[in-house]
Each structure stands twice: as structure tokens, then as C-alpha cells.
TrEMBL record:
It holds the Pfam family IMS. Gene3D superfamilies: 3.30.70.270, 3.40.1170.60. The keyword Amino-acid biosynthesis does not apply. Transmembrane segments: none annotated. Residues 1-73 form the UmuC domain. InterPro entries: DNA/RNA_pol_sf, Rev_trsase/Diguanyl_cyclase, SulA_CellDiv_inhibitor, UmuC. It comes from the Bacteria. This is DNA polymerase Y family protein. Belongs to the DNA polymerase type-Y family. CDD domains: PolY_like. Keywords: DNA damage. It comes from Danxiaibacter flavus. The keyword Cell cycle does not apply.
């Protein structure tokens, strides 16, 4: 696929932002300034101030001498970075690969995207129209390389589109500054009368390197496409991602359902081809007003069943607020796993364990009550009961050891033992009664003790003597005494409940 890049230049990025917030500034010349070595220096000037001869880097006192009515406001540190980051995230509706180009631009990898808008002209026109409508003075260009797109957006007559393979022709008449060269290099070029790129483009490379350094050759090669120029997306691209841009924004639940189904079908086809299944899927809905609606589902096992996944998303559609409409849907699978091919059965055995069906049932339940409401535990190699179990990562995870069946264990184990008051006839005997949460329980039956020692390599502490007791109502409890009566008054706790 032919690589194509778009460069967007916000000529008055900072001042435009102030004008958007305060429309009254639109007809006034103003600048943003900050102190430097005891003087206020102009950091950004709006269009009206520039027309009066006020430029970036000028001392504010000199600027006011040129224009006494000039309005001066304090520059907010880091504002340009924040603005570019926000604009880059907004631009993701046009392509998944958007990079920030400080201090006042964006670079977009638009390869394979423009046809969705009817071609590159309609594509770039849509970008410019929206940004200008928002209040930004903006120029843009598309070319085979980010370097050429950058040059045309800033130094071309009106920006525009460079036909594939025509970078050299587009650069001929532009000044050397269009190659993003450092100021000392530009000054040396100007001193020698090399005022456009044509004048040195075909000079011997060795002579150019000797006179102007490697940067000139690197920037020239990047602009011509001889050397690859990597760009860093503001949001990393998920390997498994599907996009659905829309010409007419969607506002209804039915439209959202159709979009989700199309995205899931396309995503699952890719997953099947690569032998993968997703564990987490994220739906991002880009609204017309620039806001993002996002919902996420997760599964207990890797799956590429689009019907099952749609049922999980269907539970969350009501939480999506389309407002004026959604113009782009993006489906991402940030967590994927390998899927083992399952052998087809020649016959169905009644009562057999259907792992897939159980996983899908758990996914549906989790979609209604939340994944935190479903837990699966496996035995763990620890003595203390609260450490003898652990949460399973998935439905397929196998236990490393077998569950203990030689000694009784409660169905419901408290994560933290709760203190109780007991009456004991003789030390090392089970209690006659105990008080738990304000209620007195008389013990009718008891069994024990079972002694469990602390694991000294994990923590220090007293041993425990556990008892299984049953009260007069038939309820059964798992109690323990921490320590013995020999050295001090021990403490009693309830740790679990039997069925």
C-alpha cells in the first residue's frame, strides 16, 4: 500500500485558542508573553498583531511602541503541548496514526484512509472545514512523505495535495526552511545565495555534508522518501482494531447496534485467520462534538464468536450517549490470546461439560452484574486458610495442587477472621457458647482441635486451634483460638460457615 501523510499547521495555535474562548478578542491585536532575563518577550501574536509588524521573539516594550493599543496576556506554560495532544486525539477520527509535531502542527499517516471520504481532496477539505469552523487558522497538505507534506503545508501557496512520486517537483521552489533545518544551517545557505531547494538539491552529497552537516542530507532524504522518517502516534495502535467512519452521524440505538455487529464481524474474521481470540474488547464512539464515548467488555476465555460478543455489548448500548451523533466507531481488542483448535465430536454425550457454553454464560452474567461479582478459586500451597486459595485467571487455568478433602473446610470462608466472645469450660476444650455480632450461640456439638501453624517465612504469629461447632439451631461454624491459655488470655475468632 502506498504510504501517504498529511501535515496540519495551526498557524496561530495559541492565540486562536484564546479567541475561541473569548470571541471579543477576534477584532483586537493581542500577544502572549512571558518573562526572559528580566524582560517580557512575545511568545505568540495573533493575525492582527502580525499585520502591524509584531512578531514572536519581540520585546513587549518594543511591540507597544509600535502599537500602543496592543493587548498583552500572560503565556500559560505547556499550553501548546496540551492543545496539540487534544487536537491529535480529535484527529483519530480520520486515521489511527496521528503524531504531534511541536510547536504548532500534527502529522497524520493517512494511508488507506482517504477513500472513505471520497478521495484525498474531500478528505483534506473535511479536516480543514471542521478545524476552521472550530476557530483555528489552519493549513494542510498531503504527500508521500511527512517531510514534503510539512513543507507544502507551511511554504506552499495554499497547501494542497502532492501527487504520488512528485515530491522533488513540489520542493524545488520552496525555501530551505521548508526542510526543517536548524537556524545556523539556514544562515549559511542564505549567505551562499542558496535561497531555494532547487539550488542545492542535486549538488554532490559529499560537498553538502562538508559545508552544511549531515542534518541537511537527512532532512532532504526524508522529504524525498529516500530515508524513512518514523512518527510516534499520540495513542499506540492496537494490532487488532477495526474502524467504521460514517458520512451521516448515528444517533439511534439501532444504528449503534448495526455498527457494533459490522465491527465485530470484521474483527472476528481477522482473529480466526490468525488463530487468536479476544479477552477484552473496547468500543470507542467519536461524537460530532469531539467527545468520546467508550464501553468495554471482557470474556472468561479467548473467543472470536461475534454473536456472543455482540450480546455482551448489547447490555451496554444504553450507556452510550450519542448526543448530536456518532461519526466514527472503533473496535479494539487490546487483550488477545491463542485459541487451541477444538476437535469436532462425532457424537454428543449427555451431561458432558461444555466449557464454551459455561464461559459464555459467565460472560453474560458479568455483563449484568460486573466481572467483580464472579470469582473462581483454586487451591494454593499455604497453611493458613485465608492463603490456601487464590483467584483463577481464567476458566481454563488448571490447579497446581488438589483440593484438600481429608479435613472439613467451610463453604464460606471469611477473607478476614472476625473476633468473638466465648465461654470455655477447660483450656483446650471447645467453647460452650460464643457471642457473634451481638447474638449468643449455644454450642450443641463440637469437633477439634485442628492445629495450624503460622508460616514463619511469611510472617510471625501465634498458632491456631480450629474447631467445627454446631449451635442449637443447627448452624455450623468454623472457630479458632489464637495461642494458648498458658501464657496469656487467647483470642477467639470465627473464620467460616458450613452449609
Amino acid at each position: 500500500m502506498q504510504k501517504r501523510f498529511a501535515a496540519i499547521w495551526f498557524r496561530y495555535l495559541l492565540t486562536d485558542r484564546y479567541t475561541i474562548r473569548e470571541p471579543a478578542l477576534r477584532d483586537k491585536p493581542f500577544v502572549l508573553a512571558s518573562p526572559e532575563r528580566g524582560r517580557m518577550i512575545v511568545r505568540a501574536a495573533n493575525m492582527r498583531a502580525e499585520k502591524k509588524g509584531i512578531v514572536t521573539g519581540m520585546v513587549v516594550a518594543d511591540a507597544r511602541a509600535v502599537l500602543p493599543t496592543l493587548q498583552v496576556m500572560d503565556e500559560v506554560s505547556g499550553m501548546s503541548d496540551k492543545l496539540l495532544s487534544a487536537l491529535a486525539k480529535w484527529s483519530i477520527r480520520y486515521t489511527p496514526v496521528v503524531a504531534v509535531d511541536p510547536p504548532d502542527g500534527l502529522i497524520l499517516d493517512v494511508s488507506g484512509c482517504a477513500h472513505l471520504w471520497g478521495g484525498e481532496e474531500a478528505y483534506i477539505k473535511d479536516i480543514l472545514t471542521r478545524l476552521k469552523k472550530a476557530g483555528y487558522e489552519v493549513h494542510a497538505a498531503i504527500a508521500d512523505t511527512a517531510g514534503t507534506a510539512w513543507a507544502i503545508s507551511r511554504y506552499g501557496e495554499k497547501g494542497g495535495i502532492v501527487e504520488p512520486g512528485r515530491q522533488a517537483e513540489a520542493l524545488f521552489s520552496l525555501p530551505p526552511a521548508a526542510l526543517r533545518l536548524e537556524q545556523p544551517v539556514l544562515q549559511r545557505l542564505d549567505k551562499l545565495g542558496l535561497t531555494n531547494i532547487r539550488s542545492f538539491m542535486n549538488m554532490p552529497r559529499q560537498a553538502l555534508r562538508r559545508r552544511f552537516g549531515q542534518q541537511l542530507l537527512t532532512r532532504l532524504d526524508q522529504a524525498l522518501g529516500v530515508e524513512i522518517e518514523p512518527i510516534e502516534p499520540v495513542i499506540p495502535i492496537e494490532p487488532f482494531q477495526e474502524r467504521l467512519p460514517l458520512f451521516d452521524p448515528v444517533r439511534t440505538a439501532t444504528g449503534i447496534e448495526i455498527a457494533i455487529q459490522k465491527l465485530l464481524e470484521a474483527l472476528c474474521v481477522r482473529l480466526v485467520k490468525e488463530g487468536k481470540g479476544l479477552r477484552v474488547a473496547v468500543l470507542k464512539c467519536f461524537r460530532v462534538d469531539g467527545k468520546l464515548e467508550q464501553v468495554q467488555i471482557s470474556t472468561n476465555r479467548p473467543t472470536r464468536n461475534s454473536i456472543h460478543l455482540f450480546k455482551l455489548f448489547e447490555l451496554k448500548i444504553a450507556s452510550i450517549e450519542p448526543d448530536l451523533g456518532i461519526e466514527l466507531f472503533v473496535m479494539e481488542a487490546p487483550v488477545i490470546e491463542d485459541v487451541s483448535p477444538e476437535q469436532e465430536k462425532l457424537w454428543n454425550m449427555s451431561g458432558s461439560y461444555n466449557n464454551v457454553a459455561v464461559a459464555e454464560l459467565l460472560d453474560a452474567i458479568a455483563g449484568k452484574i460486573g466481572a467483580q461479582g464472579i470469582r473462581r478459586y483454586l487451591p494454593d500451597e499455604h497453611y493458613l486458610p485465608e492463603r490456601s486459595v487464590r483467584l483463577a485467571a481464567s476458566l481454563e487455568e488448571e490447579p497446581a495442587i488438589a483440593w484438600r478433602t481429608d479435613l472439613p473446610r467451610p463453604i464460606h470462608l471469611l477473607s478476614k477472621p472476625e473476633p468473638i466472645q466465648v465461654t470455655v469450660p477447660i483450656p483446650d476444650y471447645p467453647p460452650m457458647n460464643f457471642e457473634y455480632k451481638g447474638k449468643l450461640h449455644k454450642v450443641s456439638k463440637a469437633d477439634g482441635p485442628e492445629r495450624i501453624e503460622q508460616e514463619w517465612w511469611l510472617q510471625a504469629g501465634l498458632y491456631r486451634d480450629y474447631y467445627c461447632v454446631e449451635d442449637e439451631d443447627g448452624s455450623r461454624y468454623w472457630l479458632f483460638r489464637s495461642g494458648s491459655y498458658d501464657k496469656h488470655e487467647p483470642k477467639w475468632f470465627v473464620h467460616g460457615f458450613f452449609a
